Write a sequence for this structure.
């Protein structure tokens, strides 16, 4: 890059001092951290683009593909989980990516996710023209212990479950039960999970656990040991829809987050 | 939004506590701040997409259009300046946007810029297919005084000038002078601005000041008082390529950054 | 210092890495900042040591002397104001003391103030034995503009006035008016400044403005141009009890905080 | 406190807004953190007050007593270690003291330590008048894992050992060996621990391990289960001079920092 070479010599103006106002924003050492992104005003975006209720498979696949791209770009992302209009990327404790500079990491992740989302749109929505460019917010949150970061991931997966069960019940009442939005909402007020399961099964013959795992569990992206490969310990980035709350997943996929002994 | 309504009641799992680990990242009160974004590895991106040297008009127009979109979305952006693969957005001292949360502001800006860049690509490059989704990094820098923020903007405009003069001379030597990159670099080593101007004029008859103002000054976006409007003080977002180092611009466009008396 | 010399060579243990966990805590460039310290539980401390109500002259003199010591130690403290159990030290915008490291500055100020307070105790309370070592909390607050820092100082001086007027009225009612604390409190509830002035004058013949300026205005410490000195512009650290809300003080003592023109 | 009661009603001046410039400085959740204080210019302070070389027992006892006072005041200090002119106070992960506000905690610790040091001076130096008030700097450093905080403590104890061995050898050469400071320094240059031990024993008959444990290991303060107490699990603040690098100390004193299993 020519410019860089000459830069030191040339660009010394009396304004240069303003560069010093940039602050160090290093993420503390030896903590797990999550970069979570979330669609801005996706209520409007999904409705403008006629996403299916409550889950639009193409919409979710597109989210997953954009997240996949982010995971390819950042090898130090250990595991990610996504659902609805959000994705959480967990970086390893030890990562040195961008010298752990918070803004660099955060902006790069949210930018690449956003541009990729638009870039891949036609592949997932070949018949729906994109009306405007969507955007995502981002944040980085630090977690000191293995237990904390596991709890973070569990939090997102439980949230996915709770929201999806509610939304499934709601839209079933509306679509199959011919209820108004208002009545469906009223019907569900105060119900717990068991009651919603019962309602779905009893009134509509729907076994909630038979619903698509992607809807119920969200999407998990991580590097899985590739048994099919001839090279030992060769890893491959995969998208799965498994439970990550219990230890099973973590025991079966060692090297991600240590399981307590 | 149904989900929000039910959220407080439903989503209380024992994992919820992890939300508390998010830190307050409020930008200090009463300071100017800039969000600067810069293309990641645009050396490669511009060469992959055959951008013209040293300035690709379509490429710059696309940058400007994406920045314009950001300025529309954030009325508290007072003034912006862009050049090459970067754009700086200056927020007013008093802005309360997103409660001055640094990550929210920064991620939203860089995300919207990135997705819009890809969204508008076909409009500016109808014959060049986008090979991959580009991304941008972002940062926020605070400036306490009017003088500091003016210096920041001057810094960027001087940088634009210095880089562009160098690049113009370099590529003229290469393209018109039939020099190798290496020889052109050698030829320019140690030259100052006057010498580069002289070289361009003396050997190639090029008057540098006659070059496109967009290339020499960068692109400034701001809300200008719209004299054509019937409403008094009605403002309109415009893109100009003027000098913003001297007081003239600021005196002619009051209400942006106070000019010292 | 021998140790330092050998340190680099000797102390490399495998634990040394923990030093890297110290974070950069630089105060932003070009802002005014205040270090304010405040006695911890001085309600108890002053009552244990039988301070006079509402103002104990020796107690305040001791505070001032400890603050004076801090100002001697830190030449970049531009101006200070103290009252009751607190003191505010304003550092110049440009100071480079301790590389603007927040913790270093804050801890050094509060530590020196605290130790000096105890050190000088016998000088100001020759007949009262110190029962225990008091302590002070400290904080640093940044102010970007000249106007903000002036407002900070005005805030403290107004607070001093308001509290002192209340306390003077209260203790006059109790001491001279023979009221119970409770009744005095009741009497003053809802009164404004004028009413309190009136009460003091009408019922007790006390002209509040005749009270000691130290009690009404607090104590201001700064480097004043020493006219008595033969050297021109020679400055001398002084303690005064003047109004610092209006421009007069700042105009008469140039070089502290610029007065708006 | 009368003032507080009336405050909300009274003190609303137009300057009050400056209070909002105070920033949230909460220590991240669920991390261990250390507040380390260190004497400022104690090279000078110890020489002014004729401290014994290399260790002044009264000086160290005074340090320990001041630290003891801090530990009494902050029950959430789990363990502390001191040596030379410094002390490190480790707060429990879960502490909520002062809402984990960094400045409050840091300033309170360093202030109480400093004032207590002066307060107790005459008790430890009955025949040496204090020439001036010493001060201490302070800092807070966060450590996410049990292993990190153990390493921090080990770092300090190793540092104590290395410095003390060097200083013991140095001053033995000077005092007993009648060497100049310069020659002693030269003699020790490049020597490792074994060589220094050998030098002490071979030339002066001094068994370094026979030196006072306080000098070799520093001083550890913590709440020890009080077997002599009738109440079970009753704890008592104690000062010891034991090895805290190996697991033994932590196993024998459970409830401080978990020992890995
Ligand atoms: N129809 C449909 N809507 C979806 C799907 N995934 C997400 N959404 C919608 C439902 C929610 O209104 C919205 C996500 O909720 P949020 O809490 O993120 O709200 P929203 O993005 O509107 O606002 P925000 O800017 O994040 O505060 O996106 C989907 O697969 N199908
Ligand atoms: N041909 C051509 N190249 C351009 C144009 N605008 C920007 N570029 C290229 C030239 C530089 O190699 C690059 C911008 O320089 P940077 O310092 O931002 O480097 P780059 O983005 O490669 O790396 P970075 O990720 O920012 O560190 O973009 C243009 O209009 N035409
Ligand atoms: N009698 C007497 N009391 C004073 C004098 N100066 C300060 N005080 C007392 C009155 C207040 O109770 C106290 C200062 O108020 P603060 O709001 O700082 O409360 P305090 O220090 O008790 O608690 P804190 O730890 O700061 O939250 O000190 C004085 O000259 N004479
Ligand atoms: N004679 C004697 N000196 C001691 C004793 N304990 C500490 N010191 C002195 C030796 C060192 O010069 C000094 C501690 O070293 P530091 O690295 O903390 O340096 P110092 O405090 O001078 O500078 P600083 O302000 O911390 O950068 O205190 C002692 O027991 N006896
Ligand atoms: O779900 P979150 O964490 O985004 O929570 P929110 O209610 O959207 O709040 P915000 O995005 O403003 O942090
Ligand atoms: O031009 P900048 O500010 O981006 O400077 P840089 O040399 O690219 O550095 P970085 O992007 O790593 O801050
Ligand atoms: O008067 P301050 O600023 O100390 O305010 P406070 O009410 O004492 O609060 P704190 O000391 O907890 O910031
Ligand atoms: O021993 P420390 O950590 O105090 O290290 P230092 O070399 O004194 O440096 P500073 O006190 O300036 O952080
Ligand atoms: Mg949100
Ligand atoms: Mg959203
Ligand atoms: Mg969402
Ligand atoms: Mg860069
Ligand atoms: Mg770039
Ligand atoms: Mg660039
Ligand atoms: Mg307080
Ligand atoms: Mg107080
Ligand atoms: Mg007070
Ligand atoms: Mg130090
Ligand atoms: Mg020291
Ligand atoms: Mg020391």
């Amino acid at each position: 890059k020519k410019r860089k070479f000459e830069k030191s010599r040339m660009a010394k103006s009396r304004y240069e001092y303003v560069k010093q106002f940039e602050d160090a924003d290093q993420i503390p050492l030896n903590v797990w951290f999550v970069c979570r992104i979330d669609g801005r005003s996706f209520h409007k975006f999904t409705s403008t683009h006629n996403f299916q209720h409550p889950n639009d498979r193409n919409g979710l696949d597109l989210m997953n593909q954009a997240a996949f791209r982010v995971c390819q770009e950042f090898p130090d992302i250990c595991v990610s989980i996504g659902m609805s209009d959000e994705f959480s990327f967990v970086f390893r404790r030890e990562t040195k990516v961008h010298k752990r500079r918070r803004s660099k990491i955060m902006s790069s992740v949210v930018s690449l996710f956003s541009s990729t989302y638009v870039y891949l749109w036609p592949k997932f929505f070949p018949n729906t023209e994109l009306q405007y460019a969507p955007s995502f917010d981002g944040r980085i949150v630090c977690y000191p212990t293995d237990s904390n970061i596991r709890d973070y991931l569990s939090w997102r997966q439980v949230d996915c479950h709770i929201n999806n069960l509610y939304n499934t019940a709601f839209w079933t009442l509306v679509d199959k039960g011919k209820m108004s939005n208002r009545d469906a909402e009223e019907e569900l007020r105060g119900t717990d999970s068991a009651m919603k399961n019962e309602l779905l099964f009893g009134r509509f013959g729907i076994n909630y656990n038979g619903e698509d795992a992607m809807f119920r569990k969200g999407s998990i992206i991580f590097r899985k040991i590739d048994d099919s490969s001839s090279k030992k310990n060769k890893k491959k980035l995969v998208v799965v829809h498994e439970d990550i709350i219990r230890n099973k997943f973590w025991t079966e996929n060692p090297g991600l987050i240590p399981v307590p002994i």
